[in-house]
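> call design_seq(struct)
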């Protein structure tokens, strides 16, 4: 292991590859997808158009966008067999556990390019048929992500599954499947549908975060992309990463009111509590996405009314941003802090304002533990963009196999332990 240098804890300041996909400047609070500033894409693009940009490297022409959207939406349907798979989960299974398993399930289903059957991966030959296989896998994973998420939501409520509708947008189809209750003239609320599309776009990619790295680590063994995406979904599930949006709400509920914020922050300083939704490995000034999410939240609140937790969140934000402990550690709110308010209100108010008011709909709000699923669904795009870039890298795929510096016991002889007698 001569000449090896240990990268700091958790790959701190360690670059493992070159990439053309996403650029982040953590000190300046800059985020660009393939060179386009996130602010411009959030304003002018859509999640699916941005997905095409991230995966294929340039914005699609109108005809290309039409084909892309049709293919993704066409592949939203899952085989009827999937219903028994979903029904095998307990009613209280965490939806991220269900979704993670569902992506791996897809891998068992489509063995069309099982690399182990192809010897060296079919993909790296860069042949027309390999591009065709890869594109179909990409359509399937993006198209089915919303369907699998909606099925995870419904299986927990003991409700029947819904066939993805035709003629609706990506987020419109998702909201339809989430809330459909036999409404023949179901029309998603355009404000909430657009808000969710902006949030999906913002969450589409973020360079080599923990889950994208997991997808690449897994995919480097040439396993199928469904299994690699399942691994990335498992990584996103953690409260330090995508699970933070669920943890933020649980934190705010536990704080209870603005009056309890100072005591909570003292507990954080004593490391008795974690300030979820704050801090970031890369952004040390501000997460550019949080400003856009906050603006989106204001638009949503105009439709749905404010969330009672918002006062506590604002008080927490205010106090933490003035506190030397957090300023010194450059802990600004990250994308999860403000995101939870828009996703928390969507389905519940959507039901009230669009479908029909009624206690049953209000009772149908997104469950708290469903929030990481709202992160995973759009992040499938970024995971696939990195995976495709790796599959097509010049010279073919190298398995990711880091080394270590061994600091354990030196050689010692085996002696039967006395207490075994
Ligand atoms: C996402 O990587 C990505 O790009 C992720 C993401 C994406 O789009 O993929 O942006 C999405 O995962 C956002 C992050 C969501 N996680 C949370 O909100 C959980 C709370 N945040 C922390 O767990 C933490 O900030 C991390 C995990 C996000 C970052 O961890 P780091 O890189 O180890 O933090 P750091 O080295 O910058 O910490 C510096 C100091 C340390 O204190 P000291 O040991 O030096 O005294 O700040 C402390 C940390 O202990 N600290 C916190 C804190 N975050 C860091 N202290 C209290 N509360 C926090 N939230």
């Amino acid at each position: 292991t001569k000449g090896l240098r240990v990268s700091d804890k958790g790959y701190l300041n360690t670059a493992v590859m070159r990439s053309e996909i996403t650029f982040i400047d953590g000190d300046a609070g800059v985020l660009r997808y393939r060179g386009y500033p996130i602010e411009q894409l959030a304003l002018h693009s859509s999640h699916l158009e941005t997905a095409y940009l991230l995966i294929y490297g340039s914005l699609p022409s109108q005809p290309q966008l039409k084909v892309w959207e049709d293919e993704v939406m066409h592949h939203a349907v899952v085989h009827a067999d999937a219903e028994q798979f979903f029904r095998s989960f307990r009613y209280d299974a965490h939806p991220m556990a269900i979704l993670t398993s569902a992506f791996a399930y897809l891998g068992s289903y489509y063995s069309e390019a099982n690399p182990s059957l192809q010897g060296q991966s079919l993909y790296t030959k860069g042949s027309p048929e390999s591009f065709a296989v890869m594109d179909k896998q990409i359509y399937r994973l993006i198209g089915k992500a919303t369907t699998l998420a909606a099925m995870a939501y419904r299986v927990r409520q003991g409700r029947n599954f819904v066939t993805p509708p035709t003629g609706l947008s990506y987020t419109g189809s998702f909201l339809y499947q989430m809330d459909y209750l036999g409404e023949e003239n179901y029309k998603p609320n355009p404000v909430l549908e657009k808000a969710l599309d902006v949030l999906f776009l913002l969450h589409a990619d973020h360079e080599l975060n923990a889950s994208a790295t997991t997808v690449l680590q897994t995919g480097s063994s040439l396993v199928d992309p469904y299994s690699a995406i399942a691994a990335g979904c498992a990584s996103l599930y953690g409260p330090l990463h995508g699970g933070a949006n669920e943890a933020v709400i649980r934190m705010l509920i536990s704080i209870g009111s603005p009056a309890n914020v100072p005591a909570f922050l003292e507990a954080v300083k004593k490391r008795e509590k974690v300030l979820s939704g704050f801090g970031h490995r890369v952004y040390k000034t501000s997460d550019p996405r949080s400003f856009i999410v906050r603006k989106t939240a204001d638009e949503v609140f105009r439709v749905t009314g404010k969330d009672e937790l918002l006062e506590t969140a604002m008080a927490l934000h205010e106090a933490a941003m003035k506190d030397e402990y957090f300023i010194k550690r450059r802990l600004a709110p990250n994308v999860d802090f403000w995101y939870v308010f828009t996703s928390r209100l969507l389905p519940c108010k959507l039901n009230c304002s669009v479908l029909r008011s009624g206690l049953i709909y209000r009772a149908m709000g997104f469950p708290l533990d469903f929030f990481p699923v709202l992160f995973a669904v759009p992040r499938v795009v970024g995971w696939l963009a990195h995976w495709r870039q790796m599959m097509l890298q010049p010279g073919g795929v190298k398995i990711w196999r880091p080394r270590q510096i061994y600091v354990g016991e030196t050689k010692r002889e085996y002696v039967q332990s006395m207490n075994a007698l």
